[in-house]
């Protein structure tokens, strides 16, 4: 038992924690505020800012869900790496594909 | 974090006698190793899920960059009230799921049979609440899709909305230089994204349904609560997808009273 514990901490392991309901209620309240905020912000025409605000709020909501509802805040370092890896691969998908589409016009041959 | 979390004694005891735990698979040293592996496996699966949805989100971004004005026209045909209610429904279902995970994890923490019974009942009713909220979401989505079908806004199935010249005029297509096919592209992405999400919701409902039965039988008692947590991860992931779909699909046309279709 004690051997396993030492081993665990050396490898960045952790004891299993149970997140308390009070944390869930607070996160839920924050999510409700964010939902109202995103609808309220969309009621005003701010041009391109609308999308930026909506995405900032959506990312904040997703972060709250991942950190607390999905326990990543209390998980091992390796589990955190797995969650970040998902984001990293998504950013590769977006960055490499978009740079293709965004630069196609520049790559065209000059017109005769 | 000490106030927010607690380490359960029975798990420490369980680890000491891990050879007696029926749910500890033989290829793991102990329960904490099994827990860690299972959690990592689920996050790996969720990463592949994120990539699958990522392809659709990328297509959405690309065509929005190309035909932004058409997206606004298409978005105005969605019912923003039903979309907001559905977001609320899913966020509440995530809370009930999180509370179900809590009750599963603590149901055997106190060796009092009354507490165990109360916690198990709570677990079952929280899973039922989650299931009902999930079914409500699918029901509301069904109402929205039926309306789209009646109006002729479903590409490849029933797309004749702009056959009516009055609709072309009402949507100011000529003034904004939007071709009906560009609006069609918005709806292709709308149905692909909400459709793939709905498939995930239906899978989630089947999972929650199975877990309701197993919970009632006491399957997740005595430290075997991790399956509930893993299933919860899936449910929360599907919720996160909707958190992004809602502003990207519904809110780009602005939030106004006449878009509530009351």
Please characterize this protein's 3D structure.
Helices cover 74% and strands 3% of the residues of chain A. Chain A contains four helices and one strand. Chain A has helices at residues 2-10, 21-42, 49-69, 77-107, and one strand spanning 17-19. In chain A, helix 2 (21-42) packs antiparallel against helix 3. Chain A is flat. Residues 1-14 of chain A have low confidence and may be disordered. Helix content of chain B is 73%, strand content 3%. With 262 residues, chain B is mainly alpha-helical. The model of chain B has no long low-confidence stretch (mean pLDDT 91). In chain B, helix 2 (31-66) runs parallel beside helix 9. The longest helix of chain B is centred in the middle third of the chain and has 39 residues, at 113-151. In chain B, strand 2 and strand 3 (158-159) form a beta hairpin. In chain B, strands 2-3 form a two-stranded antiparallel ribbon. Chain B has helices at residues 9-16, 31-66, 68-75, 80-106, 113-151, 165-170, 173-176, 180-216, 226-250, and strands at residues 5-7, 153-154, 158-159. At the A-B interface, strand 1, helix 2, helix 3 and helix 4 of A face strand 1, helix 1, helix 2, helix 4 and helix 9 of B.
């Amino acid at each position: 038992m004690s051997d396993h514990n030492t081993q665990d901490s050396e490898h960045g392991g952790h004891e299993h924690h149970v997140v308390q309901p009070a944390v869930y209620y607070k996160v839920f309240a924050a999510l409700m505020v964010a939902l109202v905020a995103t609808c309220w912000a969309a009621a005003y025409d701010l041009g391109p800012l609308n999308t930026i605000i909506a995405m900032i709020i959506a990312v904040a909501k997703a972060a709250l869900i991942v950190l607390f509802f999905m326990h990543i805040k209390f998980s091992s370092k390796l589990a955190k790496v797995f969650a970040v890896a998902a984001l990293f691969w998504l950013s590769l998908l977006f960055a490499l594909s978009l740079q293709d589409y965004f630069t196609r016009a520049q790559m065209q041959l000059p017109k005769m | 974090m000490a106030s927010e979390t607690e380490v359960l004694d029975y798990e420490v005891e369980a680890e000491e006698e891990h050879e007696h735990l029926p749910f500890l698979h033989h290829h793991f040293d102990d329960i904490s190793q099994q827990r860690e592996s299972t959690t990592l496996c689920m996050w790996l699966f969720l990463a592949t899920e994120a990539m699958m949805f990522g392809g659709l989100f990328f297509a959405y971004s690309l065509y929005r960059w190309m035909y932004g004005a058409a997206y606004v026209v298409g978005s105005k045909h969605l019912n923003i009230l039903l979309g907001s209610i559905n977001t609320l429904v899913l966020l509440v279902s995530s809370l009930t799921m999180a509370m179900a995970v809590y009750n599963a994890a603590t149901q055997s923490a106190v060796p009092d049979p009354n507490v165990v019974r109360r916690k198990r009942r709570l677990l079952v009713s929280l899973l039922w609440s989650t299931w009902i909220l999930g079914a409500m979401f699918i029901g509301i989505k069904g109402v929205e899709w039926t309306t789209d079908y009646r109006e002729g806004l479903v590409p490849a199935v029933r797309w004749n909305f702009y056959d009516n010249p009055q609709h072309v005029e009402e949507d100011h297509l000529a003034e904004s230089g939007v071709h009906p096919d560009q609006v069609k592209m918005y709806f292709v992405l709308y149905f692909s994204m909400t459709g793939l999400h709905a498939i995930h919701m239906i899978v989630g409902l089947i999972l929650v349904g199975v877990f309701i039965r197993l919970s009632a039988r006491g399957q997740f008692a005595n430290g075997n609560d991790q399956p509930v947590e893993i299933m919860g991860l899936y449910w929360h992931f599907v919720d996160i997808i909707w958190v992004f779909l809602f502003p990207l699909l519904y809110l780009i046309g602005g939030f106004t009273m006449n878009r509530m279709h009351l």
